[in-house]
Amino acid sequence: MKRFTISIFFISFFFFACSESNSSSANESEKENSEPQESVLETFTDERDGQEYKYIKIGNQTWMAENLNYETEDSYCYDDASANCEKYGRLYAWELALEVCPDYWHLPSKIEFELLMKNVGGEGIVGQMLKSKADWYTIRGNGTDDFKFSAFPAGMRNSDGSFEDISRNASFWTETESEEDEYMAYYLVLDYSVESAYLRYHYKGNARSVRCVKDNKKELLPHSHGFRDCHSTKSFKTTRPSVGNEIASVTTFHCNDKVLRQETRTSYGQV
């Protein structure tokens, strides 16, 4: 009986040691996966107004590293102060946000934001990883900005014309509509009080920040077909084929009396 007891103790100890080793390895692996690789900021110029924007690659996605500041009718500066547009970018209602990104860029879908969250370590720490290092409501509310995404607390504009949450909150529209209510769409929100981030939906008439993501496939320009003096509009839809997810971007070029339509499909793995 004594020998049996000792054997059980030895086996238990061996199992515990192995479990500790495996758990430690798993934790180290998870930590390595969430640690940012060296990120290099680059810039491009929006040909519509000459503004220059920083952008950064995170995983296989290329994101603008600052909020869009393209002035259109029915876009807003927080508190109607131009200095806030210079610092935080403009605020757009959802319908306008769908069309306001520069050529070769688009308003991200809910799926694309979910992939971003996964690439920076998961929902529980994504806010801390993506928030800017300054300008949040408290020092503890600032982020580490490990991936140089630089999410600033730009606040929002309600459909009644009131503004709220500057320094406390950053929210970015997605192109994805709510399944529950046709008058609502999803957005990503980061808050000064938590290290996490989450996707929720609310009324399309509220104005929020826009953070564009680059198209994965280069679209054909109409001048390659001999057309000139064109302007374009974009629309997006999300489909769910049997494997992975797919974003379909439909670009319509209006060239005098001619209309060209091009659909680009970009596939992503399961998120």
How many individual β-strands?
A: 15
Uncertain ranges: 1-33, 218-225, 236-243, 265-271
How many structural domains can be distinguished in the coordinates? Answer: 2
Shape: globular
Radius of gyration computed on alpha carbons: 23 Å
Average pLDDT metric: 78
Please summarize what this structure is.
The chain is an alpha+beta fold. Helices cover 22% and strands 31% of the residues. The chain has a three-stranded antiparallel beta sheet with strand order 1-2-3, covered by helices on one side.
What does this structure look like?
- With 271 residues, the protein is of the alpha+beta class.
- The chain folds into 2 domains: 42-214; 222-268, no CATH class.
- 22% of the residues lie in helices and 31% in strands.
- It has 5 helices and 15 strands.
- The protein has helices at residues 2-34, 82-88, 94-97, 110-119, 126-130; strands at residues 42-45, 52-58, 61-64, 75-76, 91-92, 105-106, 156-157, 163-164, 169-177, 184-191, 197-203, 213-214, 230-239, 245-255, 258-268.
- The strands form 6 sheets. It has a 3-stranded antiparallel beta sheet with strand order 1-2-3, covered by helices on one side. The chain has a 3-stranded antiparallel beta sheet with strand order 9-10-11.
- A hairpin with a 5-residue loop joins strand 7 (156-157) and strand 8.
- It is globular and about 40 Å long.
- It starts with a helix and ends with a strand.
- Residues 1-33, 218-225, 236-243 and 265-271 have low confidence and may be disordered.
